[in-house]
Amino acid sequence: MRVAVVTVGDELLSGDTVNTNAAWLCEQLTDRGVDVARVTTIPDDVGEIARVVNEYRAEYDAVLVTGGLGPTHDDVTMEGVAAAVGRDVEPHDAAHEWLTEEGGYAAADLVDGTTHLPAGARMLPNEAGVAPGAVVESIYVLPGVPEEMKAMFEHVAEEFAGEETHTAVVAVDEPESELVDRLADLQERFDVAVGSYPGDAVRVKLIATDEGELAAATEWLEARVELVDEDVATENASSE
Question: Which terminal CB of the chain, N or C, has fewer other CB atoms within 10 Å?
Answer without folding.
Answer: C
